[in-house]
Design brief:
With about 70 residues, the protein is mainly α. About 75% of the residues lie in helices and about 0% in strands. Helix 2 (about 15-35) runs antiparallel to helix 3. The radius of gyration is 15 Å and the shape is elongated.
Length: about 70
């Protein structure tokens, strides 16, 4: 997939952008998987993990301009 001008200007390669997009997809899949495992016993712990994954995904998207 071609990179944007901003991504090019910031020195990212197509391979780096593709890896970043792949990582955001995997993070989203893991968040969905964890969301499906939520029950009353582990609700707080899983919710914290989901929140950290969400933050990681947002950081990757911001850093790479996705």
């Amino acid at each position: 997939m071609p990179i944007s001008w901003g991504q090019y200007y910031n020195g990212f390669t197509e391979e780096e952008i593709d890896k970043a997009k792949y990582n955001t997809i995997k993070i989203t899949e893991k968040m969905i998987e964890l969301h499906n495992k939520i029950n009353d016993e582990n609700r707080t712990r899983i919710k914290e993990v989901i929140d950290r994954l969400q933050m990681s995904r947002e950081c990757i998207e911001y850093y790479y301009g996705l």
